[in-house]
Design a protein that fits this description.
Layout (H helix, E strand, L loop, with lengths): L1 H13 L14 H17 L6 H9 L2 H8 L5 H15 L5 H4 L6
Helix pairs in contact: 1-2, 1-3, 1-5, 2-5
Length: about 100
Amino acid sequence: MYEDIAQCLMDHAQRLPLSNCNEKQPYSHRHLEWIAVTAGAFFDKYPKLLTDDVLETLAIGKLSTKLEQFGHLKEFYPLNKALEGYRAYLYPKLKKHLFGPLYVH
């Protein structure tokens, strides 16, 4: 189940509006496992948040929006770190300021 959630998050991340890539990228197994573990911890504790809108926000939302909605949840931070790592893997040439900081404490 968590692998399915991770794949959905990764699919959203691949559709980042600023990318010029319309082809679906193969899943990085390292990132898939990392996102699945952190998504499992997040959605086990907050199952009502498992909606497509939340998945999209987590995957490609602005950091300020994510912090406003989920910043009070400690399980958000490892998941956000995993998703930001995946986005950096997908789009290494985009400037860091488009994504915001990778780590938030």
